[in-house]
Write a structure and sequence with these properties.
Layout: E1 5-8, H1 12-23, E2 28-32, H2 45-49, H3 58-64, E3 66-77, E4 82-87, E5 94-97, E6 100-103, E7 107-108, H4 117-120, H5 127-136, E8 143-147, H6 151-160, E9 165-169, H7 181-194, E10 198-199, E11 204-210, E12 213-218, E13 223-226, E14 228-231, E15 236-237, E16 252-253, E17 266-268, E18 273-277, E19 281-283, H8 288-302, E20 314-319, E21 322-328, E22 335-339, E23 342-346, E24 352-358, H9 364-372
Helix pairs in contact: 1-8
Bound molecules: flavin-adenine dinucleotide.
Length: 374
């Protein structure tokens, strides 16, 4: 195939898609700001070391056959298949043809609308944000408030809690509230060991500067003085209006080959798609494993494969030294029990729907096999 493929997004999915396309001999341009970097380490090891977890560099991209356009797509002319790209280094915007287009822009992680948080708070969901935050916590013993106790916030609090005095806040009553009880309990135990207090059902009124310190004002837990505030609460769509009518839609519906429904020559990869899973129905999977494998699958589909994408949901998380792994679709589980040290969720027919395990990385294959046998 000679027609160039344009991949918009230079994260996990975009990079794996572009790399696989190049391996298959297709001309490919990957558009995205800066060199591609990984995301999970931003709340773990990379935050501790201050080193960006690069997925590639300029030389390796060239060697692979991936052209990288360093910029951000600002306008999509879908009928004429043209993209406008603002170049990172400045200069005139570029207009490029995109007869075959892959969309892989992930999610956005804006700060919540808490007065003062936007200009006084940091974030570490992006590479630039993590580097700026790391500048603030290079010296040990800082007082840090982390807002948001989902995966990113809880991981961040545990990473920083090893060298700093961290407080974790959320409006819900426990960390990782969307997850199963053993996950929440495990996270609370680690936070406790690290001396990180968790303030649940916290109402945050604002963040203010007071001399050389910051103060997080709450109506439930008083004023919390600190040196650094980290926002890790919530995510939003990265999709432009030309691709989705509803600005709140996080993902585009794809068919089983990951082609965007209703469009020719438009595919999606990573966090910003849903697909029809043969067992679970239409789902999206906002996790690393799916980003990587959906990116590769799209490349194969572009090359004419008609194979359906059937990857089961899988995520890992590191809350300091607690490794959490879960494979399968937790909402389908109607009962849970412990079986040989694994937390096994079964559906209404008694078939395995989800397996959760902690500090047992070698058991991933076994967990996948249990699920596959259902
Ligand atoms: C801090 C953090 C920790 C995480 N930890 C884990 C974990 O432990 N385990 C796990 O399973 N998952 C984890 N995840 C989730 C996982 O990293 C994501 O599911 C995965 O990165 C999604 O890949 P993606 O390529 O779809 O999006 P991303 O990796 O987010 O990449 C999207 C890219 O598109 C670029 N982009 C956006 N808009 C445009 C545009 N208009 N033009 C050009 N480029 C654009 C962005 O700059 C970005 O580089 C974590 C995520 C974060 C943020």
């Amino acid at each position: 195939m000679t027609e160039r493929v344009i991949v918009v997004g230079n994260g996990v999915a975009g990079h794996s898609c572009a790399s696989r396309l190049a391996e298959l001999g297709t001309k490919v341009t990957m558009i995205g700001p800066g060199l591609p970097h990984d995301r999970p380490p931003l709340s773990k090891r990379a935050l501790a070391t201050g080193r960006l977890p690069m997925l590639s560099d300029a030389e390796r991209l060239i060697a692979k056959g991936v052209d990288h356009l360093d910029g951000t797509v600002t306008d999509v002319d879908l009928p004429n298949r043209r993209l406008t790209v603002a170049q990172t280094g400045g200069g005139e915007p570029l207009v490029i043809d995109a007869p075959r287009l892959v969309w892989a822009t992930g999610l956005r992680y804006p700060k919540p609308p808490v007065p003062g948080l936007d200009h006084l708070g940091h974030e570490n969901a992006t590479g630039d944000g993590m580097l700026a935050l790391h500048q603030q916590i290079r010296e040990p013993g800082k007082r840090v408030v982390v807002i948001g106790a989902g995966l990113i916030g809880t991981e961040t609090a545990a990473t920083l809690g090893q060298n700093h005095a961290v407080t974790l806040l959320d409006m819900v009553d426990r960390p990782l509230a969307r997850f199963l009880t053993p996950v929440t309990d495990g996270a609370l135990k680690i936070l406790n060991e690290l001396g990180v207090p968790f303030h649940g059902e916290c109402r945050i009124d604002g963040v203010e500067r007071d001399g050389d310190q910051l103060v997080v004002q709450t109506s439930t837990h008083g004023s919390i003085p600190c040196d650094v505030v980290v926002s890790a609460a919530g995510f939003r769509s990265s999709l432009p209006p030309e691709l989705v009518e509803d600005p709140r839609a996080l993902a585009m519906p794809c068919d089983s080959t990951l082609r965007v429904e209703g469009h020719e020559n438009l595919w999606a990869a990573g966090d910003c798609l849903t697909f029809p899973h043969p067992r679970w129905g239409r789902i999206g999977i906002p996790h690393w494993d799916h980003a990587h494998w959906s990116g590769r699958h799209v490349a194969e589909s572009i090359h004419g494969s008609t194979l359906a994408y059937v990857r089961d949901p899988y995520f890992f998380s590191d809350i300091a030294h607690l490794r959490i792994q879960q494979v399968g679709f937790a909402p389908a589980a109607t009962s849970w029990g412990e079986e040989s040290g694994l937390h096994v969720g079964r559906d209404a027919d008694g078939a395995v729907a989800c397996v959760l395990f902690m500090n047992a990385p070698a058991r991933l294959k076994e967990a996948r096999e249990l699920l596959a046998a259902a």
